[in-house]
Amino acid sequence: MMRPKLGRLLGAGLMASLVWAGAGCKKGADAEAGSRASSAPSPSAARPPSSPPASGRGAPAGAGQGLLLEAGRAADLRVTSDGRFATYLMDGQKPRLDGVPPQMLLGSLHVVAVDGGEPRVLGESVTNVPGGLLFTADSKHALYLTGYNPASQSGSLNVAVLDDVKADPVVLGTAVSYMLPSPDGTKLAFVDGGKLKLGPLPAGPFVDVAAEVSTAQFTADGKSLLLKRRLSAAGGLAVVSVEKPEEAPRKLADQVGDYAVSPDGSRVAFQVRSESVRGLYDLYLVELPAQKPKRLAVASQAFGFSPDGKWLARSENGKPDVPGDLYVGPASGGPGRKVGERVEIFSFSPDSQAVGFLDKYDVTARAGLMAVASLPDGAPKRVGDRVPNFVWGSDARYVAFLSRFLKPEYSVDLMLYPLGAEKAEKVHRGVFGYGFMPGNGQVVFRSNCIRNGRACDFKALELPQKEDPRTWLQGIFSYKLSADGKRVLATYARMDSDTYDIAAYDAKTQQRKLLDQGVQVPVHFGGKDDARAVYIIAQGAKAGVYSVSAMP
Predict the structure, then answer these.
(1) Are 345 and 367 in contact (CB under 8 A)?
(2) Which of 220, 215, 221 lies closest to 238, judged by CA?
(3) Which position among 342, 392, 464, 539 has the lowest Cβ density within 10 Å, counted as fewest Cβ atoms?
């Protein structure tokens, strides 16, 4: 619960979103590059597949071992949340427009079942820009922009029913710059020519809600829709009833920055440009249905609700170059308790019984003191120094974090703090990417990295800790965890080309199986119970979209 974001603005964060952080983990915090560990790799660990000598540019000889879903030059592979369908852009081209990021593509959007079947063309000139393609939460519909114009960052909004191959996509708007399905997947909000429209999926009817709108957000309960107006309309924030969209939106404030909605959808915390501290925002809170907002804090830079919606944490009294102090109070807006100083990064535990934060944060070094405070009135406890990031375990019993050690030599080490313990314990030296397995049975991480972090040992520490971490795999580039935490998809960076080999690993049996060679990252789990791996081979005669059994 760091800094709340406004939504899926087309083009916003493009560079960060299109470059996949393959060296990290699916649920871990940001990786620290350049760190090393001095311990020797375990001889019993599964070793990476060998990379045969290059035979010219193209895929290696062993590429294409999986089920070919569609042949051709593909990019921007995505898998629906239920694992049934994969979408991708075929024959993507960079737009002929100066100033666009080099990763931006326009191509033909295709969809295919990950178990195999006839690919289906959904539309042309679809972009890989974030927000240009979305799925509903139930994976029934794909929402995407065709004829995308990079200059105006807009296109024609199409809705396709994924499991009905005979149904033609429905065009809902021709100058759409923003779209968002409701949490239950039954309704859709989109901005067409600056006008916000709202209605049922897949075909409406849609009601004009407001003009001069940039983005919108549903509350978690789906009862209200927040809309953010363009700067030309004072950057205001308003709210409208989803059940009565024909009623005029109620304005909450103008010159609004970030905002966050409580998990139960009953409250909204939002920033309004401060009149007393130039360049910063004051924090306001409003109850929904919209009541009169009240100011909670001056010069607030970071804020967020706890997962259970009971608490609201926020920084107060900050300065343009100095984070404010961290206060935690009731989500209803009562007085807060100060728990930290100069805090920019914080996160509630998954059970909302504690808050972790980086105290006395150094903006230049991008690190602070790791601290944890139990709620409602536990004293803050500092458990780590020079910490750039941290992550909670899903059961809230542990906090894992990186700590930069300067002596006897510089090292970025993984630390583990069991909640309530006297101190944190060192897990391993020289760690690059870490996280908890689903179910919190282990904390996993990459270490002993060589080749600038492109080949690392993949290790796991059993929880509660009884022995040293075990090496599961050697020489991996990235990893992805199955939803049940029983399997790992690992990639290995090849030395003969800018491609990767992919393997599946069973955490219980410790069996590893090479799945394919010469693939592109990222790779995805797909199918029922994450039974398959879905990936792209982009080079050579075997180029195409593939899936293969992910069972070692």
Answers:
(1) no
(2) 215
(3) 464
Give the Cα separation of 458 and 444 in Å (integer).
7
Q: Tokens 């509903």 identify what position?
A: 136
Would you say 209 and 196 are in contact if contact means Cβ atoms under 8 Å apart? yes
Residue 218 has pLDDT above 70, yes or no: yes
* Model confidence at 54: pLDDT above 80: no
- The token pair at 69 is 């879903």
Cα 36–Cα 38–Cα 39 angle in degrees, nearest 5: 125
Of the candidates 227, 230, 170, 174, the one whose C-alpha atom is nearest the C-alpha of residue 200 is 170
3-state secondary structure 107-176: EEEEEEECCCCCCEEEEEEEECCCCCEEECCCCCEEEEEEEEECCCCEEEEEEEECCCCCCCCEEEEEEE
Instruction: Give Cβ neighbours of residue 274 (< 8 Å, ≥ 6 apart).
Output: 280, 281, 282, 298, 299
- Please list, in sequence order, all residues whose beta carbon lies within 8 angstroms of the beta carbon of residue 158, skipping any fewer than 6 positions away: 122, 123, 143, 144, 145, 146, 169, 170, 171, 172
Between strands 141-149 and 487-493, the pairing is unpaired
CA dihedral 418, 421, 427, 430 (to 10 degrees): 100
Instruction: Kindly state the helix (H) or strand (E) to which residue 15 belongs, with its residue range.
Output: helix 14-18
In eight-state DSSP terms, residue 16 is: H
**Measured between alpha carbons, how far is 203 from 183 in angstroms, rounded to an integer?**
17
Tokens of 28: 């871990």
Place of tokens 């990767």: 500
Pairwise CA distance, residues 312 & 305, whole Å: 5
Are the beta carbons of 439 and 485 closer than 8 angstroms? Answer: yes
Per the CB < 8 A criterion, the answer to whether 192 and 206 are in contact is no
Binned at pLDDT 50, 70 and 90, residue 62 comes out as confident
Whether this model's pTM surpasses 0.70: yes
